[in-house]
Specification:
This protein is an alpha/beta fold and 263 residues long. The chain has one domain: Survival protein SurE-like phosphatase/nucleotidase (Stationary-phase Survival Protein Sure Homolog, Chain: A), CATH 3.40.1210. It has helices at residues 17-26, 67-78, 97-100, 104-113, 145-157, 212-218, 228-233, 252-259, and strands at 4-9, 30-37, 54-57, 60-63, 84-91, 119-125, 169-175, 186-188, 197-202, 205-210, 237-242. A hairpin with a 2-residue loop joins strand 3 (54-57) and strand 4 (60-63).
């Protein structure tokens, strides 16, 4: 069997710890080409550029562009004919339906779906609280081992198992490693619909806040079993099989309204 080929991208930037951990893990069994942003492009969604300067990198290519740029540039010009696109590992979870469109990590996988190339987006849930802020955690490759284990397993087996016959991409969120060394279980999930964004106006500035993260710290979340957020908070690896194109359905009320448009 020939070696599989993977286009690897992310949104934290090509020099991020999670990206290198994933590159090393996937390279043990696949031909991996990095096509990733030169700098941090977190939360840019599917923002696109018209021109993106490319620099050669020891892992492949660094682009002065977005994750979606990287997918298009890779599949069209830099490493066409790959078997799969893998995006991550993002430092910070990408869970909940409302997050999917914002995430650069997830958007790179969505972009691949329009090329009919299977894709996996990977993120690491880094809980807040304690003596250190969440962004000061997950600084070593070992901190990403649950995510790299899931990525390795799914990249090896998902395509041949027929997983992508029923979905376009997988959104994977892994917990930080258990201090006791117990590996996390994997659960197939669906995106939580919990939404708790707030906005406060004060002296010409609107402060936007996502209160979901505080809820997750305490475990006080209403998300039912089977959701991505519930799985990750309880220490499991969440795998959500998702489709990229927007769905459309017959809509009788809108049909009737359109018919009377010129009346």
């Amino acid at each position: 069997m020939s070696e599989s080929s993977i286009l690897l991208t992310n949104d934290d930037g090509i020099e991020s710890v999670g990206f290198r951990a994933l590159y090393d893990a996937l390279s043990e069994f696949a031909d991996v080409t990095a096509v990733a942003p030169e700098t941090d492009q977190s939360a840019v969604g599917r923002k696109m550029s018209t021109d993106a300067i490319v620099s050669e990198h020891e892992l492949g290519y660094a682009l002065q562009g977005t994750p979606a740029d990287c997918t298009v540039a890779g599949l069209e010009a830099l490493c066409p004919d790959v078997d799969m696109v893998v995006s991550g590992i993002n430092k910070g979870a990408n869970i909940g339906a409302y997050v999917l469109g914002r995430s650069g990590t997830v958007s790179a996988a969505v972009e691949a779906a329009f090329f009919d190339v299977p894709a996996i987006a990977l993120s690491l849930y880094v809980p807040g609280g304690g003596d250190r802020a969440w962004h000061e955690k997950a600084t070593e490759p070992e901190d990403f081992r649950e995510a790299t284990a899931a990525a390795t397993y799914l990249a090896k087996h998902a395509k041949s198992a027929g997983v992508f016959g029923q979905c376009d991409y997988l959104n994977v969120n892994a917990p930080m490693p258990d201090p006791d060394g117990e590996p996390a279980d994997m659960q197939v999930t669906y995106p939580s619909e919990l939404y708790d964004m707030t906005a406060e106006y004060n002296n010409g500035t609107v402060k936007l806040h996502d209160a979901v993260w505080e809820r997750m710290q305490t475990g006080n979340i209403p998300d039912p079993d089977g959701t991505d957020r519930r799985a990750v908070v309880e220490g499991r690896i969440s795998v959500s099989p998702l489709t990229a194109p927007h769905t459309t359905h017959r809509h009788e009320a809108l049909d009737a309204l359109a018919e009377t448009y010129m009346d």
